[in-house]
């Protein structure tokens, strides 16, 4: 099914690109006589989609970000309580400008780190793409810790299992071991610092 979706998206993208190119050629888009420099993004960094400012409202969410190699909890006010998918989307968007000014960052590299999250009972099952591989490096430990601590900060979620194609996978812990067991915030407690 995923292969079919990918092929379908590639076909749609190719058709859109062809239509755009044909449209631009017929609309008198000027050609250039000399080459020009096109700015490229810095390798390994994805453009920030972080909100400029935090929202406000009667509900709140707790996200875990990173500062000086430690996990730091931040509270954000929201118009309503986020479901687990929205909670992870806010985490993956990264720190706000104000949070960045306080030295906070994210070890999560972009918004495609998580495919989906489903909650069954008190366990959140987080599906990650095949391209993401936990190596045990400090940033990997912090990245998985951000997800576990953020999800388990929500009422009703006590543990997190990471899966790939529906099967549990091993993720790095602070002691450099890999665990397929359901993870709790306590598993990353040694990395949590005061805000």
UniProtKB/TrEMBL annotation:
Record-annotated GerMN domain positions: 84-173
Segments forming a coiled coil: none
Annotated signal peptide: 1-24
Keywords: Signal
Pfam families: Germane (PF10646)
Signal among keywords: yes
Record-given protein name: GerMN domain-containing protein
Listed SMART domains: Germane (SM00909)
Domain of life, source organism: Bacteria
């Amino acid at each position: 099914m995923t292969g079919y979706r990918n092929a379908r998206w590639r076909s749609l993208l190719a058709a859109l690109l062809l239509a755009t190119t044909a449209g631009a050629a017929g609309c008198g888009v000027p050609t250039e006589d000399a080459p020009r420099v096109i700015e490229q993004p810095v390798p390994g960094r994805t453009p920030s989609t972080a909100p400029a400012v935090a929202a406000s409202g009667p509900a709140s969410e707790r996200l875990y970000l990173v500062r000086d190699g430690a996990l730091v909890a931040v509270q954000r006010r929201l118009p309503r309580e986020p479901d687990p998918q929205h909670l992870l989307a806010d985490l993956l968007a990264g720190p706000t400008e104000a949070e960045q000014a306080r030295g906070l960052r994210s070890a999560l590299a972009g918004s495609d780190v998580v495919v989906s999250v489903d909650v069954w009972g008190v366990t959140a099952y987080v599906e990650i793409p095949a391209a993401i591989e936990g190596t045990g490096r400090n940033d990997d430990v912090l990245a998985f810790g951000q997800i576990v601590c953020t999800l388990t900060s929500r009422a009703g979620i006590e543990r997190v299992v990471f899966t790939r194609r529906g099967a549990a996978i091993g993720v790095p812990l602070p002691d450099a071991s890999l665990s397929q067991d359901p993870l709790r915030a306590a598993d990353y407690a040694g990395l949590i610092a005061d805000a």
